[in-house]
Amino acid sequence: MRLNLRALAATAVYAVLEQGQSLSSALPEQQRLLPNPKDKALLAELCYGVMRVLPQLDQCISACLNKPFKGKQRIIHQLLLLGCYQLYFTRIPAHAAISETAEACRQLGRESLVKVVNGVLRNIQRQQQPLSEANDTLKYNFPAWIIKKLQVAYPAQWPQIVENSQQRPPMWLRNNRQQQSREQYLQRLQQQAIEATAGNSDDAIMLSSPVDVAQLPDFGVGAVSVQDGAAQWAAQLLDAQAGELVLDACAAPGGKSCHILERTPGIRLVAVDNDSKRLERVNQNLQRLGLDAQLFVGDAAAIDSWWQGPQFDRILLDAPCSATGVIRRHPDIKWLRKAADIAELSHLQAQILDHCWQWLKPGGILLYATCSIMPEENHQQIAAFLARTADAELQAITASQENCSPDWQILPGQDNMDGFYYAKLQKNNTA
Ligand SMILES: C[S@@+](CC[C@H](N)C(=O)[O-])C[C@H]1O[C@@H](n2cnc3c(N)ncnc32)[C@H](O)[C@@H]1O
């Protein structure tokens, strides 16, 4: 039997909330089962929507149940979250939302709970109570531990950061300058009635509203790629030159590797990632764009184990991080990350950074990047590195006039970009 859209959505939400999978891996598994693109889009909207406002939905559902669902029955809790989301946040007629959600309950093999699902959702619809804002978690739909950390790190800006992280992000493109200038591509978009503007970095284009990539002129032959404006600063700040040996130390899925090569032909790029499946995506991206790099599955904290060549002229270290800067794109991060992850990640980042530094030529540049907004992973990480590394010097990044620190913390929503962090480190010749 083919499951209906709500049953597929509940399966994806269950995989995230109960099994710790990311939505970007759980969702496509279910989307594959829907032939119609509109249905795929609705499935995504429901799953992403639930992740955005989970605490309020959770509170609303829990208040309607005498006892919580446990174990495998939790999928019915997730189904109710989806039902509640449809009633509060979509224009789907209430009768359709309720009957489709109840039908999903039956299809998920929980015939005995169909009446409960129906009853709870009808109750919510009848009462039409505003969703609770009784504490900060409910008011902002953010975990308390992240709010607390943001309040300490950004006493004035945290409410804006939280609000921006709840917004739907714009779609950004990276112009492939090997194929056309940004001006030329902007004109092609205009001819297709796709409204777009140039971003602050050299190749960035921001669309006024998202479109299916199939609608983008020559997307299939690599004229543009989808990449947030903040991530596009990496290649520009790294500023690799033709003939240089460059390491992309945490490369998958390869957006920044491709940009480095598009910007400057003649770079010898080595791209490594310790996740072989993700590295396959680097390969696919390079192929689509007709680019070439040497790929390794390996540990960036043990370069000697897979690389026998010389030290590198430049290294991009786009470190594994909490991804707290990209919550607007991946709202499931709010529920997948735990407070203890930040210290663990910061330790891992320090290990990789120290090791990569040994593989940088004297005079070389290492660009450290994360899509985090946590100081422990960013400014504090680099301050500690500079304190323990005699031959390291921080070069000032002057990409934004608002930035008065040599490193650069981009906050979510700033110039419509994701939250991101950059520090440009030079290795002195005389250590
Ligand atoms: C932020 S993502 C990189 C995104 C990539 N630079 C891009 O622009 O497409 C971090 C990557 O680091 C990889 N990673 C984590 N620990 C690693 C390690 N010890 N060595 C190499 N790669 C690692 C992860 O598999 C993940 O693909």
Automatic annotation (TrEMBL):
Reactions catalysed, as given in the entry: cytidine(967) in 16S rRNA + S-adenosyl-L-methionine = 5-methylcytidine(967) in 16S rRNA + S-adenosyl-L-homocysteine + H(+)
Domain of life: Bacteria
Transferase found in the keyword field: yes
One of the record's GO molecular function terms: RNA binding
Main location: cytoplasm
Record protein name field: 16S rRNA (cytosine(967)-C(5))-methyltransferase
The organism of origin for this protein: Shewanella fodinae
Coiled coil: none
